[in-house]
Amino acid sequence: MIVLRPVEMHWLGEPKADVCAHGHVMFRMPGLDLPELVALDCTVSAAALYLLRSLSSDRAPSPVSERMFPCCGHSLHDVGDGDVLVIGCSYGVDLGVHHDGAYVLLTSNEDCVAIRRILWRAAVFQFADDVAEFYARSQSKSPSDSDRDGHRCFLAEWERRRGRRFPE
Prior knowledge:
Blueprint: E1 3-10, E2 22-28, H1 35-39, E3 42-43, H2 44-53, E4 69-70, E5 75-78, E6 84-87, E7 92-93, E8 96-100, E9 103-108, E10 111-116, H3 117-137, H4 148-162
Helix pairs in contact: 2-3
């Protein structure tokens, strides 16, 4: 059984201008231990998008690139390929994802666990839906001029990957 939930979600700045939701992540799965995730106040909106990407793409954990559960997301950029680029710091917790037939292999540190693809998808969709529900309960967003195009790209990518609109 997998538990993957955003908890204690909040805004860091002015709720109307802040387009990145933060919070903690509850992640439990037999055989996979991410103790550093418990204390991390991460950007759950970016994490949800990265998790949605993991449904169709493999990703190797990397010590230098974006983390699956990033600490921060300072800016959003439309780079023209249909996906948004989220620029943050190098801190966070990473998770590798490899698709193998009906299974997804999740890796972190020395741990590697196989989970049925359908269960991974359900957990990721629930995480994304929890984040979207938080936005729906919050004030509508008014991103800064520098984030406006990136935010629009974020919304479009979310809708494409989740199959439903993100609340604005």
